[in-house]
Amino acid sequence: MSSVTDTLAIDGGSRAVTTPRPPYRRFDAAEREALLQVLESENLFRYLREDESQVRVFEQLFARKMGVPYALAVSSGTTALTCGLIGLGIGPGDEVIVPGYTYIASAAAIINARAVPVIAEVDDTLTLDPADVQRKITPWTRAIMPVHMRGTPAQMEELLALAEQHNLLVIEDTAQACGGSYRGRRLGTLGHVGCFSLQHFKIITTGEGGAVVTTNLQVFGRAVMYHDSGRPFWEGYEGEVIPGVGYRMSELAGAMGRAQIGKLDDILARQRAAKARLVAQIRDVPGLQLQRIPDEAGDCGISLAIFLPDAATAHRFAAALRAEGCGAGTMYDSEIPDRHIYYNWDHILAKKGYTPHGCPWTCEHYRGNVQYSKDMCPQTLGYLGRAVAIGLPDGLTEQECDERALAIRKVAQAYLG
Ligand SMILES: Cc1ncc(COP(=O)(O)O)c(C=O)c1O
């Protein structure tokens, strides 16, 4: 094994990471059998035979896993957010505070619900900065949308306290943190509604898919109604009737979800153990600032971010890590149109709605005057600009963790020592 003082691979030395890893397989007999069962049933529609529905079984398992009474499976994380917002009754005239570092879908869902996104800073947790949320609250604020980005729990204690103080709703975007927790409670269940993505790259997946969870029957009923315009016509529907759309989950996705939810705790245990092993070896490296994690035990362990002294060092650091064989990348570069950073949400910053009328910003119900600009969240761009993200794929062996830790220490020794 090479050592910390060896020549960097980028300068012609040998690589710290010696084993090219084969792709980790996420699917096995559990998914195959669940999917075959659906095909053999000759039914892909969840409401055809409700008592046999795979989607329904998945919802029950998901609700149980999250420890809530109600879960609704939908077609994506974006539609889960939209159903959550509509479920809460958020709409025209309302402002919703969202972090400037999140997938653009978080803001798009707010606009889709005809409400106005207000973009706030993230801090050294790379999640919503409660101090900036406080500054951004106006008489029109209706809700806060914490996003548990890259599996990191947001600062829920502070955000929930703010929400209570200002009588605001909390909708948790848990798209990237399924199964994570904050002080012992599953992410997505601390606010009024939690929304999950089950898209291919998420912790568990149905291909495309999403889920909404809540403890409030009325919110659930509205989300159920909104996700299927035909709902009042199906036998036994007793919820509130509002106009709905078509965000149903298919039986194939439901079967995938059923198989995948059974793997969630094992996936999280593996990811957390790998991250803990790696972090223990780099925590005290001089000059390296690790992302602050609001609840380490609840972190999903799917990502590791470190802050370097400045953007130029971050770029050099990431390039040197890649040369060592350790997957790594910088998190913000104004030349790269990464849609996870508000800076690149040009059409939203330009207040472009669905028609030239400019709603929701020009809607007669909206009395606020939110302003956007590319430089409106300098703290967010500052943290992301000097951050390096290190990939933690599922299934890392102890040796693979140790080699990645060595790569980080080696590069830190050369560039920061
Ligand atoms: C933070 C966040 N919110 C929302 C979404 C939207 O989920 P989907 O792609 O399933 O619509 C994503 C997906 O990438 C996400 O990462």
Topology:
Elements: H1 29-41, H2 54-66, E1 70-74, H3 77-88, E2 95-99, H4 105-112, E3 116-120, H5 130-136, E4 141-144, H6 156-165, E5 169-173, E6 181-182, E7 185-186, E8 193-197, E9 210-214, H7 217-227, H8 251-261, H9 264-282, E10 289-290, E11 303-307, H10 311-323, E12 328-330, H11 346-349, H12 378-385, E13 387-391, H13 398-416
Parallel strand pairs: 2-3, 2-4, 4-5, 5-8
Antiparallel strand pairs: 1-9, 6-7, 8-9, 10-11, 11-13, 12-13
Helix pairs in contact: 1-8, 2-8, 3-4, 3-7, 9-13, 10-13
This protein binds pyridoxal-5'-phosphate.
Task: Kindly list the characteristics that best describe this protein.
alpha/beta; globular; Aspartate Aminotransferase, domain 2; 417 residues; four-stranded antiparallel beta sheet; seven-stranded mixed beta sheet; 35% helix; binds pyridoxal-5'-phosphate
How many individual β-strands?
Answer: 13
| Major β-sheet profile | 7 strands, mixed
First CA to last CA: what distance?
21 Å
Give the overall pLDDT as a whole number.
96
Instruction: Give the helices and strands as they follow along the chain.
Output: HHEHEHEHEHEEEEEHHHEEHEHHEH
Q: Provide the gyration radius in Å.
A: 22 Å
**Biggest sheet strand line-up:** 1-9-8-5-4-2-3
What's the overall geometry? Answer: globular
Beta-strand residue percentage: 5-15%
Which structural category fits the helices and strands?
A: alpha/beta
The CATH superfamily label of one domain reads: Type I PLP-dependent aspartate aminotransferase-like (Major domain)
CATH architecture of one domain: 3-Layer(aba) Sandwich
Bound molecules: pyridoxal-5'-phosphate
Low-confidence stretches at least 5 residues in length (pLDDT < 50)? none
Considering DSSP H and I runs of 4 or more, what fraction of the residues is helical?
25-40%
Give the number of helices: 13
Q: The CATH topology of one domain, please?
A: Aspartate Aminotransferase, domain 2
**Name of the CATH class of one domain:** Alpha Beta
